[in-house]
Amino acid sequence: MAETEAQRYARELREIEAAIFGRRGEGHVHPTNERMQELVELLGDPQRTYRSIHLTGTNGKTTTARMIDELLRGFGIRSGRYTSPHLARVTERIVLDGQPVSDRTFVEGYRELEPYVGLVDGRFEIPLSFFEIVTALAYSIFADAPIDVAVVEVGMGGAWDNTNVIDAEVAVITPIGLDHVQYLGDSVSQIASEKAGIIKPDSVAILAAQPPEAATELVRRAAEVGATIAREGLEFGVVERRVAVGGQFLTLQGVGGLYDEIFLPLHGAHQAQNAVCALAAVEAFLGANGESGALDLETVRGAFASVRSPGRLEAIRSAPTILLDAAHNPAGLKATLEALAEAFQFRRLVGVVGVMGDKDVSGLLELLEPAVDELVVTQNSSARGLSADELAAVAVPVFGPDRVTVEGRLDDAIEAAVRLAEDTGDDVLSGAGVLVTGSVVTVGEARTLLGGST
Q1: SS3 of the chain: helix, strand, coil, percent, to 5
Q2: Any idea which fold 314-449 has?
Q3: Assigned superfamily of 5-305
Q4: What is the pLDDT of residues 76-130, one digit of tens each?
Q5: pTM for the complete prediction?
């Protein structure tokens, strides 16, 4: 039987993925965007055909980008969203009108891009990476759509990040901590200095609450380039939040006014912080301020109520409850565990952990130890992933040998965790849970195994 058009594009997408994933991946960074500049110039600088909002930080970028996207579309603005990494399919990274691009759009866009990739490869000693190619593809697809505004999350860092060929009029800096220290620096101030590179002349910088050493670097950069700053806790902030079924109710002080009775279907103080940063960014983009007035309250309420953030403390199964959370550094996991304790009352909780080898594994495990009753260590499919046995060698001294189970396959690990969670001596519905965490890749693969949709 001849393949259908949809089958053909799906096949070609798999072939393209194999080809570009075979290049340098996101774990092998060459800190420059010279090749990226060359590529977009050959393409006619598609990223300059629309306005843009740029996001960096250590945690919260993807969810904040999703919130900004929802708000913009609520106000009738056609948006494109570029985030990374993806949970299940590469097309998730490039979003038009709130939906991942189709296989056809991705494939046809890549075919148009492909000759220019070859040209740039021939001009540099180091060929283009997977991330450079997909970023250029996103910018080209957005230009062809066309969109009004791109919401763009950095891949890593800021100044030399491959996304930083845009001149965004709004830069959003989510909380900064230690991560990717081999590329960004081994101090918060060094990392902040690098991330501050997305703040452009005459732009507006929306700054989440930051450690003092990070705030100093961000404010310095803003002053150097003549950017306006709005800071959480000063110009905007979370006034009140109340835990609710399925999320929380918020009162937010934006730069343009007060917004009350905002239902956000996500858990935790960190998600409230992401929400107010997203709100301030859209206010800045649309020109709302204390003089011009606030944005329409009902539109804001509707947008936030529609926000979804797959793989961020996401309940994907019940009896027992299975939660997926892509926290992969101590700051992110700390926020997750605080939100979990606030929103769920588990009498028995089992952790399933698979991590990348370049992360602060000890820091993650030390945070998990008091939060879970049992730990199942496993591994994901990434070449950067730590093996289950290597992870167990770090986990056993923290948890003790009686609380650690080793499973080399993620599906076996989830099954083992469910069995351990059910071993409560009571009805399984009365408070058993499983938390899968440690890596975006681990959570994405678990989501696929458990039938989640993005």
Answers
A1: 45, 20, 35
A2: Protein-Tyrosine Phosphatase; Chain A (3.90.190)
A3: Mur-like, catalytic domain (3.40.1190.10)
A4: 999 999 999 899 899 999 999 999 999 999 999 999 999 999 999 999 988 999 9
A5: 0.92
